[in-house]
Amino acid sequence: MKTLPLAALVLALLMPLLMPLPAIAAEKDPDTGLILADGWEVVRSNCTACHSAGLVTQNSGSRNYWLGLIRWMQATQNLWQFDAATEKTILDYLSTHYGVKEGARRQPLPRELMPVNPYKMDVDRS
Ligand code: HEC
């Protein structure tokens, strides 16, 4: 029996540690980072021609936010028009998987930590 080269042996021993942890997050396409779910290929083919998919995946918002962005790109960035079914698929995908984040906004400050409201100040004019 040949002796395994040390590097191979070390690697074999370390393999279990290098394996990714069981996926807690949604599975993603290794090339684009898009979450693998209904409609992702439509998004890939329509949304990664001009910029990286990273621009898509790092954003999130309501269906209306995404629609507004699409209309803006169509009006100013030469994004092509989609037929209704394609647009629905894209919006369903984006608003489901890149929707409004829970708790993305901080809680309002408690009243006692708020600055004085300049419109409500009792100005002593005596
Ligand atoms: C025809 C080219 C083109 C296509 C196709 C395209 N975009 Fe864009 N998009 C742009 C340009 C240009 C920008 C501005 C890039 C910049 O600011 O650097 C942009 C910016 C964005 C941004 C960032 C907006 C911001 O507030 O910074 C997002 C998110 C985005 N696109 C999503 C999409 C999605 C989703 C699709 C598919 C429906 C798509 N894009 C398809 C051209 C395109």
Automatic annotation (TrEMBL):
Entry protein name: Sulfite dehydrogenase (Cytochrome) subunit SorB
Signal peptide per UniProt: 1-25
Superkingdom of origin: Bacteria
Record flagged with keyword Signal: yes
Single GO MF annotation: electron transfer activity
Annotated InterPro entries: Cyt_c-like_dom_sf (IPR036909)
Keywords: Signal
